[in-house]
Amino acid sequence: MVRDFDDAERYYKRAKEGYEEQLGRDSEKALKVTIGLIMSTGMSRDEGIEKLRVLLKRCERALGEENVVTLETLNTLGCELDDNGEYEEAKEVYERCLAERTKTSGENHKDTLDSLNNLGIVYYKLKNYEKAMEYYERALEGYEKTLGKTHPSAIMTVEGIAILCKKTKDFGKAEE
Question: What stretches of residues are TPR repeats (predicted)?
Answer without folding.
Answer: 113-146
